[in-house]
Structures are given as structure tokens and as C-alpha cells.
Amino acid sequence: MRTLFVVLLTISLLAFFRSVGFSVDESLILYFDFDQESGGTVTDKSQYGNNGKVVGNIQWVDSMDKYGKCISLPGGGPCIKVADSKSLYSGKTLTAEAWVRPEEFGDPYASV
Known about the structure:
By secondary structure, the protein is of the alpha+beta class. Helices cover 16% and strands 16% of the residues.
């Protein structure tokens, strides 16, 4: 009886966790996850599709943590440019978030 209980519990937990998926919050107006391997375009995963264009020499690299891919932006101008779009102007407050890992620290006020 105990074995049956453990088996049923395991199946139930696997079914629950397998059905839990990732979805992008609908309130986001721009979301880059950088999980692609390379290329000249960065795909916007928000509902608006404001894809970014790679400008300059960026490097697509594996994250040093557990979060997949990331980009390395050497100094001097490489960036991701997004075309102007009405969807980028919410008319409300805006919060920007990024995970940044500098290779070195110079002037602490010029870092971000």
C-alpha cells in the first residue's frame, strides 16, 4: 500500500510540475532573454515584437550562472538598438531591469 502511495504521489508531482510553464508578463513592453546563439537581431519576447538590431561587435556567450545565454558588450559603442515604437511609450512610469556583470570597475558613478 505504501509503495502505491509513493508511486501515485510521484506521478502527481511530475504531472503538476510538467504543466507549469513559462509565460511572459503581459505588462512588459520589451523583453530580451538573449537565449539565441548568435545573429544580428535580438528577439523581443513581449507581445509587441520590438526586436533589437545588434550594432557593433557583441559576443554571444554562455552565462556564468544558470540562466542560459547572455551578451558581452566591450566598451566603445556596441549595443542593441530598438526602432521607435508607440508601444515603448506607456505614458506611465517605467521600470528598467538588467543583470549586469562588469569585468572591471572604473569610476563607480559611470558604471551604469
